[in-house]
């Protein structure tokens, strides 16, 4: 409780390219070892080098949890992942054959995107892989991902494109709008998936700069509004929003 109460800081400073971990006067011990810089580097090394799905899932999951919320060390770890080139390693896991690895990577990226510089980089490099995992479109994925994983990916996309026009443009360029509208209107997706897709569509429509290009492509305002009337009401195991924030 002491460690977690230290840290209700302001959002990450967009002008700060690096954030150094606090200097310790005594060695870390107990659970403090879980979030020290040397341990974070081990997580990153495992993400880059391991071929075992369970290890990849666990490493990405550890990062997801450590980066959740606004506690002090979460801020440092979000920055450390960028400095240690860990963002690209996690983004690469989005095309892994294991759905559990994909979901863990998606969750980690969502929490990492709270850092404004991370958000920019994830928008540039991870949006295409996130979109590839969505159902529908001309390039339907061979994997039939579960509702929980699809909702996780949609929530990550929304986190990345909020206050990030360039990421929203990248979403449009990578067939993302087509897939989102299909989820919203197809009638064979769950209510959670429809709500998550609609949230992303509303975020996109909120950018006035994108409305004319979207209208030229044939999209209408109604395409970007929630359409629960045709959505399946069948819920998965959990009906809550997939979030650790």
Tally of DSSP helical segments: 13
Tell me, what is the CATH class? Mainly Alpha
Overall, the morphology is elongated
Number of strands: 0
| CATH A-level architecture | Alpha Horseshoe
How many structural domains can be distinguished in the coordinates?
Answer: 1
Q: What is the CATH superfamily label? A: Leucine-rich Repeat Variant
Into which percentage range does the β-strand content fall?
Answer: under 5%
Q: Oligomerization state of this entry?
A: single chain
Termini Cα gap: 18 Å
Helix/strand order: HHHHHHHHHHHHH
What is the overall pLDDT average? 84
Low-confidence stretches: 1-11, 230-245
Radius of gyration: 19 Å
The class by helix and strand makeup works out as: mainly alpha
Find the CATH topology.
Answer: Leucine-rich Repeat Variant
Helix content: 55-70%
Largest sheet: none
GO cellular component, one term: cytoplasm
InterPro entries: ARM-like (IPR011989), ARM-type_fold (IPR016024), Armadillo (IPR000225), Plakophilin/d_Catenin (IPR028435)
Subcellular location: Cell junction
Keywords: Cell adhesion, Cell junction, Repeat
